[in-house]
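Blinded run. Sample ID left blank on purpose so nobody reads anything into the name before looking at the predicted structure. Input follows.
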Amino acid sequence: MGSMMKREQGRSGLVYSTDGGTMCPACRLPVVQCACRLRGSAAVGSGKVRVVLERTGRAGKGVTLVRGLPLDMPALMLLGKQLRTACGCGGTVKDGVIEVQGDHRDRVVDWLIGQGWEASRGNS
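Blinded prediction complete.
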């Protein structure tokens, strides 16, 4: 039993919580509010905001992708939420890219330009 205790000491303990979802093992905060990732993640994008439609690997269903936003993860998640609300659909944020379900390229570009971003429709 002593070896099991030693093995457990290196782990943070809490991995998932219904209150905050998946927890970061290092700082023990919800992954969305993770202090470790905030320190390591500065601006993610290049500054050239491209809005493209992708169908590859999605069983033919289109997903509008927004790439190149120079924002950290919490700001990117907030912007993604606002975009999904403006389009009236679902989506997510993965690896610094906002994904909006469906073909909403024109609507997303117009909304981003209205918010002060220099966005353009890229080639898919």
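Unblinding after everyone has recorded impressions. The chain is about 30% helix and 20% strand.
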